[in-house]
Design goal:
alpha+beta; nine-stranded mixed sheet; four-stranded antiparallel sheet; 21% helix; binds uracil
Length: 235
C-alpha cells in the first residue's frame, strides 16, 4: 500500500492532508523519515508519527488453507504452527487460530487478533456451522446419516448435537459433514462410535464463508469485511 493512503487511513485524514504530513518529514517508516508519499509500505512496516506507531486496522482476519502436519496453535516447540505460516507479514500482531483443526486435518483456519470476534464465532450458543469433507475407510451408510441426525453419544458418554452427514454422489467413501459445535477430535470420535475410521478431513467453510479454492495448502489471504461478516452467517 502507498504510504499516503496508509497514513490517511490510520489518522482519518484526506490523502492531501496525509501527503502534507509526509512531505514535512513527520512520518517515519522503520525508524527513518520518509518524505515520498508514494513509498510503499506493508503490514510488516512500522509507520510512525513521532513516537506514535500508526496502525491501519484495529484487527486482522486471515483465511489460511492449513496443510497437513501443521498444528493449530500460536507457538509450538516442535511443530510448525498455523501462525508461523503468516507471522513474518504480521510481526506486531498477536495472532491465534479461531478454532482448531487436528494436525492431520487440512483446510480453512481463521487467524485473527480479535479475541471478541473469535469468542463470538466459537460460542456454542451461536452455532456457527463448520463444514468438512471427509474420507472414510468404509462406505458411508444410511444408518450413519441417521445417527448423525439424531445426535451421536461419544465413547465418554457425552451427547453431541445433531449434525449433517451428506454422502457424496460420486464416491461411497466420501461425505460432507456439517457440525454446529466444536469438540476435540469430534468428527473422528463420532465416526469411531459408528465403527468407521477417518482417513482424510478437510474444512471447506466456516459459517457462510467457503475456503477460497485458489488458496493452495499453506497459502493465505486477508478477508474483506464482507467475507468477515459471512462467517457469522449460517451456510
Ligand atoms: N473433527 C476432528 O476430528 N478433527 C478436526 O480436525 C476437526 C473436526
Amino acid at each position: 500500500m502507498r504510504l499516503d493512503k496508509f497514513v490517511a487511513q490510520a489518522l482519518g485524514l484526506t490523502r492531501s492532508e496525509a501527503r502534507a504530513l509526509i512531505t514535512k518529514g513527520k512520518i517515519t517508516v522503520d525508524g527513518a523519515v520518509v518524505k515520498k508519499a508514494d513509498a510503499s509500505v506493508s503490514e510488516a512496516s512500522a509507520v510512525a508519527q513521532g513516537e506514535t506507531l500508526l496502525s491501519r486496522e484495529e484487527f486482522v482476519y486471515i483465511m489460511l488453507n492449513k496443510p497437513e502436519g501443521v498444528v493449530s496453535a500460536s507457538e509450538d516447540r516442535r511443530d510448525v504452527t498455523v501462525v508461523d505460516l503468516v507471522k513474518d507479514d504480521f510481526p506486531r500482531r498477536e495472532l491465534f487460530p479461531a478454532g482448531r483443526l487436528d494436525k492431520t486435518s487440512t483446510g480453512f483456519v481463521l487467524l485473527t487478533d480479535d479475541g471478541a470476534f473469535a469468542h463470538d464465532i466459537l460460542a456454542p450458543r451461536r452455532h456457527v456451522p463448520k463444514t468438512y469433507q471427509v474420507l472414510l475407510d468404509t462406505p458411508v451408510t444410511q444408518e450413519m446419516v441417521q445417527a448423525f441426525q439424531e445426535g451421536i453419544t461419544l465413547a465418554d458418554g457425552s451427547r453431541m448435537q445433531p449434525a449433517e452427514l451428506l454422502p457424496s454422489e460420486e464416491d461411497p467413501f466420501r461425505a460432507e459433514v456439517v457440525l454446529h459445535q466444536g469438540v476435540y477430535h469430534q468428527i473422528k470420535r463420532m465416526f469411531g462410535v459408528l465403527g468407521a475410521g477417518v482417513n482424510g478431513l478437510h474444512r471447506t467453510a466456516i459459517g457462510g464463508l467457503a475456503l477460497d479454492p485458489k488458496l493452495q495448502p499453506g497459502q493465505w489471504r486477508r478477508l474483506t469485511s464482507e467475507e468477515k461478516a459471512k462467517i457469522q452467517l449460517q451456510k
